[in-house]
Write a structure and sequence with these properties.
Strand order of the largest sheet: 1-3-2
Helix content: 40-55%
Distance between the termini: 45 Å
Protein name: DUF433 domain-containing protein
Shape: elongated
Pfam families: DUF433
Number of domains: 2
Oligomer: single chain
InterPro entries: DUF433, Homeodomain-like_sf, WH-like_DNA-bd_sf
Order of helices and strands: EHHEEHHEEHEEHHH
Structural class: mainly alpha
Largest sheet: 3 strands, antiparallel
Radius of gyration: 18 Å
């Protein structure tokens, strides 16, 4: 059974290493069909895709198949969605096999790991920093973390400051900050500024 659709469109683009426009185009052409669901942090609704969709984008990019006809792209995406947790090659057309497992396994696994770490370690609580997303067990917002990293601090230094938090949680928080830009009047300030 395919993993649930639980990655935002921006998360999928970043994890697959493709521009957001590629994701939008795939949705427009009905290659990818996102699920509508409640937004994770601020309420409202948003669209979600699965790790299999991340594998689709990564495989298309790495194989250089951006100009592949839409009917073939739909076939690849459909076959991927029907796969279980292990990726396998996909027959695109007679005699044309796309080695999705070789081309996209790393992106697929990264997407699954990111979603798990995000759900385990990134929380939004109105009583902590007014609901800004923070790393569980800390008052460190994902935006402050991104600011610290962009100011030259390393993940090793962060894990030294927070020894109970695994390095992977900081990596997930960094991706989360990138894919969920801060909005509102304070968003214009430097990422690490208070």
């Amino acid at each position: 059974m395919a993993p649930a659709s639980n990655l935002t469109l921006r998360e999928a683009a970043v994890l697959a290493g493709v521009p957001g426009g590629d994701v939008a185009k795939a949705i427009e052409h009905k290659v990818i069909r996102p699920a509508q669901g409640a937004a994770r942090m601020k309420g409202g609704q948003t669209r979600y895709v699965s790790a299999h969709d991340v594998a689709y984008f990564a495989a298309i990019r790495r194989a250089g198949l951006a100009d592949l006809p839409v009917r073939h792209k739909k076939r690849i995406a459909s076959r991927l969605r029907a796969m279980g947790p292990v990726l396998a090659p996909v027959e695109v057309a007679e005699g044309l096999i796309l080695d999705v497992d070789r081309l996209a396994a790393a992106s697929y696994v990264a997407a699954l790991n990111y979603a798990r770490l995000r759900d385990d370690w990134i929380i939004s609580d109105p009583d902590i920093l007014g609901g800004l997303p923070v790393i569980r067990g800390t008052r460190l917002s994902v935006y402050a973390l991104a600011g610290r990293l962009s100011d030259g601090e390393t993940l090793d230094e962060l894990t030294g400051d927070y020894p109970d938090i695994p390095r992977e949680a900081f990596e997930a928080a960094q991706i989360f900050a990138r894919t969920h830009p801060r909005r509102g009047p304070r968003a214009r300030r430097a990422p690490g500024a208070r």
